[in-house]
């Protein structure tokens, strides 16, 4: 009998897509759902070491840490190094709400010359270069689920979804990536 | 698919990201414990359901999450304008008023397919 439950990644080993758009599971990361009023943004930015974006659809990134604007008082923070984001935010000393969603979400990386088309196969969101440049991010829908899309690079997108929906999201994106190759 | 302008995201976004949330500008009575059942019914349940221009609450639920208000035409489904929650009804005085003679054909409301 096992002494301890083993941690199992929701999409461990998943790989798919096509040469036009490769679809893979992102490495584990810590995540924070952060909410704060405008007067707390400066102190939180200082504590986090990156300027919380205040314009719609924009993000800020530094050293593997990303702050994505989701709403006028809401951000999704992602740290690829696994920092304890709630503890970092607490150092700000200002009123805010911080919920650790590291294990609620998982992420799927879509990369390649037709990565945007692969995502667009199931999402109504405008991913054209002018509407969604590098660094853009948005909460939207993908097929039947809600996701957060972040454009990490010219041909790289990170799709954040809820853990229990991840096999569905992966299937949809892999299918879209195969179609995008034709 | 309709594109709806979210006043918080400051751009048009696909309708699948939105959810309607009933009539806007419904004021909760300040003396809610004193009013009669009939008055409560009128406040809580009874809506005009007009044909033409309506003011509604909408929520960008799969986007920024915000509630906002929209002026929408129930005949054409056209969003006339959207505005932030808490703002007064915009002045749309020259707005066309729907009448009993409004012709509701597919072509009249959606245009001729090209
Ligand atoms: Zn919005």
TrEMBL record, chain A:
GO terms for molecular function: sarcosine oxidase activity. It comes from the Bacteria. InterPro entries: SoxG (IPR007375), SoxG_het (IPR006280), TrmE/GcvT-like (IPR027266). SUPFAM superfamilies: Folate-binding domain. GO terms for biological process: sarcosine catabolic process. This is Heterotetrameric sarcosine oxidase gamma subunit.
Automatic annotation (TrEMBL), chain B:
Residues 90-114 are annotated as: Disordered. Residues 98-114 have a biased composition (Low complexity). One of its GO terms (biological process) is tetrahydrofolate metabolic process. It comes from the Bacteria. InterPro entries: SoxD, SoxD_sf. One of its GO terms (molecular function) is sarcosine oxidase activity. It holds the Pfam family SoxD. This is Heterotetrameric sarcosine oxidase delta subunit. It comes from Mycoplana dimorpha.
């Amino acid at each position: 009998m096992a002494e301890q439950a083993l941690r199992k990644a929701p999409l461990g080993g998943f790989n798919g897509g096509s040469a036009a758009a490769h679809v893979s599971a992102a490495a584990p990361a810590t995540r924070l759902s952060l909410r704060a009023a405008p007067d707390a943004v400066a102190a939180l930015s200082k504590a986090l070491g990156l300027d919380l974006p205040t314009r719609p659809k924009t993000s800020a990134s530094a050293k593997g840490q990303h702050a994505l604007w989701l709403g006028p008082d809401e951000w999704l923070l992602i740290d690829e190094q696994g920092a304890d984001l709630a503890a970092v935010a607490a150092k700000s000393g200002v009123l805010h709400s911080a919920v650790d969603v590291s294990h609620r979400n998982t992420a799927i990386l879509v990369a390649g010359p037709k990565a945007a088309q692969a995502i667009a196969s199931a999402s109504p969101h405008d991913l054209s270069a002018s509407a969604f440049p590098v660094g853009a991010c948005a909460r939207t829908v993908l097929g039947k689920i809600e996701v957060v899309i972040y454009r990490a690079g010219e041909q790289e997108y990170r799709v954040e979804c809820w853990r229990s929906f991840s096999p569905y999201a992966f299937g949809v994106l892999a299918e879209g990536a195969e179609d995008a190759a034709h | 698919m309709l594109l709806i302008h979210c006043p918080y995201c400051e751009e048009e976004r696909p309708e699948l990201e939105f959810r309607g949330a009933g009539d806007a500008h419904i004021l909760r009575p300040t003396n809610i414990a004193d009013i009669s059942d009939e008055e409560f019914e009128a406040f809580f349940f009874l809506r005009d359901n007009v044909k033409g221009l309506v003011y509604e609450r909408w929520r960008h639920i799969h986007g920024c999450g915000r509630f906002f208000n929209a002026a929408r035409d129930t005949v054409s489904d056209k969003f006339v304008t959207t505005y932030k929650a808490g703002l007064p009804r915009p002045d749309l005085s020259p707005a066309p008023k729907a009448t009993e003679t409004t012709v509701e054909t597919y072509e009249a409301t959606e245009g001729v397919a090209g």
